[in-house]
Amino acid sequence: MNTLSLRASDFEPGHRVAAFQDAVSSMCKLDITPADPETFQSHTEIGLLPTLMTGQTMHSACTVVRTPTLAAETGDNIMLHVPVKGAFSMHQRGGQDVVCGPGQIYVDPNEMPGIAEFGEGRTEVFYVSIPRGCLQSSARGLNAVMRDTAAMTPQWRLFLRYAQSLHAELRLLPPDQALQCAAHVQDLVVMALGAANERMEIARGRGVRAARLKAIRDDIEQHLTSTELSVDWMAARHGISQRYIRSLFAGEETTFRDYVAVRRLRLVHRMLTDPACSGLTVSEIAMSAGFGDLSWFNNCFRRTYGRTPSDIRAEALAVAFSRN
Q: Which intervals hold domain HTH araC/xylS-type (predicted)?
């Protein structure tokens, strides 16, 4: 997996601060101004995955700014700032002036300009960046803490320890296992956000897996007729492994393929019994619902409804016409 290291001390002494500033602006979309250029120290270790970024940083006193121009270059991610040592102050557009120290977490919408101040001494912060779409099942809980600090609850501590462990081992993990661990981090964030808001599904006791499964089912409904719909396509969209998706549906005593087939069969059944669709052939209806293999479709339909599609259509249309 991709890991990056950025140290102020790696640059030539005569141009150290300017070169470091250019690197931070390019890589992190931030402007950084040391309080004392002569003694300034900074070290950042970054771990990169398609659906997750982790970072461990150390700064001496400095000001860090995300300008509107730099903010526009960032993705639609949520950055979680967790002070490990020391503290920082933060102000983002639309938020309040806050101070975040150990025992707290700051929730940062990356696309929002802001300014952070790191005080005297050594400040250490752990960061996790997650695509906003991966947290859609926790939208209410997320909005409640956006551009603000939250207390370090047991749920947030569990997230932090797991994310720090993943960060430490990232370069040694096979890609598929790293992606699976990234999904676990996302789930722990969902759980932590839900625990802060009783209205959330997770806080009502249905669990992280239930929230994840609901998000995938909702996505299936939105793309039910798409020929692209498959377990690998869905895994890529949600930033999780195919194995994890299969385990979610196995917990419901079904498979991803069978669940999609059932939803498509119900759509076909509705169309077959709708007089407005009487001009379409059974094959056309099946194809429009996303079935590519007509033989498999016919077998599934008979197994589910106990009759052929033509029989279901003939009976429903006869009833409809008899009423007119």
A: 214-315
